[in-house]
Amino acid sequence: MSFRSSLFLAFRYLRPRINLTTVSTFLAILGPVIGVAVLVVVASVMNGFHARIQESFFGFTSHIVISNYNPQKPIPNLDRVMKVLAEQGYPGVSAAIQTPSLIQMRGQLIYHQFLGIDPQTDRQVTQFFRHCRFDYGGRSYNFQERYLNLQDGEIICGLNFLIEHGLRIGDRIVVHPLARLQKMIKYEKDGSISLSQEEGTYIPIELRIVGTFHFGMAQLDSMVSLISRDQAAELAGLEWGDATLIKVMTRDPFAYDKEIRRLYGINALDGLSIRSWRDQNETLFQALQTEKAVMLILLVLIVVVSAFCVCATLITIVSQKLHEIGILKAIGADPFSIMNVFLVQGGIIGGLGIVLGTLTGLGLLMIRNDFLNFCRRHFNEGLLPESLYFFKNLPAKVEITDLVLINASTFTLCLLAGILPA
After folding, report:
1. Nearest-5° angle of CA 297, CA 300, CA 302?
2. How far is Cα 368 from Cα 370, in angstroms, rounded to an integer?
3. CA quadruple 124, 127, 128, 129: dihedral, nearest 10
4. Where do the domains of the chain lie?
5. So what's the pLDDT on residue 270?
6. What does the pLDDT look like over 333-387, one tens digit per residue?
7. How far apart are CA 324 and CA 365, in angstroms?
8. Closest Cα partner for 235 from 203, 211, 213?
9. Per the count of CB atoms within 10 A, which of 141, 207, 258, 332 is most buried?
10. Residue 312: is it exposed, middle or buried by C-beta count within 10 angstroms (0-12/13-18/19+)?
11. What residues have CB less than 8 Å from 356, skipping those under 6 apart?
12. Measured distance CA(129)–CA(147) in Å, rounded
């Protein structure tokens, strides 16, 4: 019996009379459809999370950050280091100061990170400029001009920070420098703590909110604010012109290992910490990779279960077709040809499951945010909170390699499911 005959019988057995076998055949096809659809949705959403977080970090931080091993200490010989880095031909190099302080607001103190920048050079290494908005006193400002002229006494806050604390552009906030507070504390030899008489008192710093930025990532938009580098030096208790970190923009952000090895070979950078954007967020990216791997393993088990459903369906069909199989053998069909009939059946079920499952998964991705908003409105407003999952909406990115891997593994499992009944 030819393969063409086996193919004809395989299709014929998949469309029997309306009976229990019809239902089992439908369920056998539905299993791979659901498995593939869920795998496509979950893999794409995880890829979207990874891509959006990576994109946000690329806009927020530079490709490489050079700092002292004690991040609160200034970089020694800053001018020499900046000159050496400029000679390396990098697209952008910018010095900055990152310092924590306390914001006094409505009778409470809020811990906050302040990033002191030089806007003229910082726009070469980050994307803050693209995410900033300025509008004060009913007057509109030119984005570039206002950003490049950030003055002492002014601050640009994240949009989430303004919303959380009921602030608006034009409001003023009071900042207590942690560096000054730490100097006021004196640790005695007996372990007790007292106020240092040398430091005396200090006057908090008042800053006016002149703009806001929005990266779309909750943590970045609520935990960091921009001020001028000179203002940050005052907060950190550093000398004018000091910097606690240097941000470097490379031509290829994914070649960070090569660039870090090259920078460690420069004598002027001896004793300094050199970290890539990946190193700064290693725990987060590892957690995302682990979560994606675990989710895919769990969901692959769904496809395995659906493969067993295919196997059970084919066994049912075989048991019902014993009479026909006997006739085929009587007219000279060899066992291998008969086996091909049920192997092809498994392949057909797998193929239909792949096509319908992939289309279903892609369709669900198109309406994912509409469905999420519907669930939030009618069931749980706190579903997938932005503070925990970083983004308000579900990002998604379809990777062709993932689709090929999902479809190939599903088809293989369905094909293998036809071996036992065959």
Report:
1. 125
2. 6
3. 70
4. 3-55+284-417, 64-249
5. 87
6. 777 777 777 777 777 878 888 899 999 999 999 988 888 888 878 776 666 666 6
7. 45
8. 203
9. 207
10. middle
11. 29, 33, 36
12. 7
The single residue listed with the structure tokens 């703009």 is 211
Percent of the chain whose predicted confidence (pLDDT) is above 70: 82
Record the tokens describing residue 189, joined without a space.
Answer: 């030899």
Q: Which of 64, 76, 62 is nearest to 270 (CA)?
A: 76
What mean pLDDT value characterizes the chain?
80
Q: What is residue 196's predicted lDDT score, i.e. its pLDDT?
A: 64
Q: At what angle do helices 20-60 and 400-417 cross, to 10 degrees?
A: 160
Phi, psi at residue 229, to the nearest 5°? -65, -40
- What does the alpha-carbon distance between residue 38 and residue 30 come to, in Å, rounded to a whole number? 12
Nearest to 395 by CA among 373, 368, 414: 368
Backbone Cα Rg of the chain: 31
List own/partner pairs for 262-268 with CB under 8 A and 24 or more apart.
Answer: 262/88, 263/64, 263/66, 266/84, 266/88, 268/77, 268/80, 268/81, 268/84
Strands 205-213 and 132-133: antiparallel
Instruction: Determine the longest span between alpha carbons in the chain, in angstroms.
Output: 108
And the tokens for 10?
């395989």
pTM: 0.70
Length of the chain: 422
User: Residue 104's closest CA among 6, 13, 202?
Assistant: 202
Q: Extract the tokens encoding 258.
A: 């090569």
Which one has a higher pLDDT value, 306 or 68? 68
Closest CA to 158 of 394, 393, 386: 386
Beta strands in 107-204 (DSSP E): 108-117, 132-133, 135-136, 139-140, 154-158, 172-177, 185-187, 193-195
Tell me the β-bridge partners of 110.
103
